[in-house]
Amino acid sequence: MSVLVDSSVILDLFTNDPLWRSWSEQQLVQRDLTDELVINDIIWAECSGSFSRIEDYRVVMDELAFSREPLSEEALFLATKVFITYRRSGGTKFHPLPDFFIGAHAAVSGHSVLTRDPTRIRNYFPKVHLIYPK
User: Fold this and answer.
1) DSSP 125
2) Which of 67, 84, 122, 130 is deepest in the core (most CB within 10 A)?
3) Helix pair 41-48, 7-14: axis angle to 10 deg
4) Per residue of the chain (134 residues), what is the pLDDT tens digit?
5) What's the topology of domain 2-70+109-131?
6) b vs e for 58-83, b when ≥16 Cβ sit within 10 Å of the residue's Cβ?
7) pTM, rounded to two decimals
8) How many CA atoms lie within 13 Å of 94's alpha carbon, on the beta-carbon side?
């Protein structure tokens, strides 16, 4: 199985989050034994803010050894369609949220998503398998 790792999980490690680091680290170790762990450019960009130098960030990301996949045209198209649905249902953001790109990527590529915050993906991509704290 392939698992798209949401930035929330990676950021727990980078920020040493006192509430979530242990859960996130356990999930990554456990999933790495049996699954391919994947990120995309949106996730890569979101996590980079914890570093002041790109060289340092690259070293850490290389150590984590995630597979990195680009977003396909189909995923980008789906993310925009879902964003339009979100706006029509009263959503207040004016630009597609990273969750829409992540959810669309998973939906189109058949990835599960490892996240701490399943709400938007669950609501807008109900067929995507989610791995989250319960």
Assistant:
1) -
2) 130
3) 30
4) 999 999 999 999 999 999 999 999 999 999 999 999 999 999 999 999 999 999 999 999 999 999 999 999 999 999 999 999 999 999 888 887 899 999 999 999 999 999 999 999 999 999 999 999 98
5) Rossmann fold (3.40.50)
6) eeebeeeebeebebeeebbebbeebb
7) 0.93
8) 0
Q: Provide φ and ψ at 9, rounded to 5°.
A: -70, -45
Dist. CA 56–CA 14, nearest whole Å: 12
Q: Output the six-digit token pair for 35.
A: 């699954």
Residue with tokens 């994947």, as numbered in its chain: 38
Which pair of tokens denotes residue 85? 């649905």
Which phi and psi angles does 38 have, rounded to 5°?
-125, 145
CA distance 43 to 22: 20
Q: Secondary structure of 41-98 in the HEC alphabet?
A: HHHHHHHHCCCCCHHHHHHHHHHHCCEECCCCHHHHHHHHHHHHHHHHCCCCCCCCCH
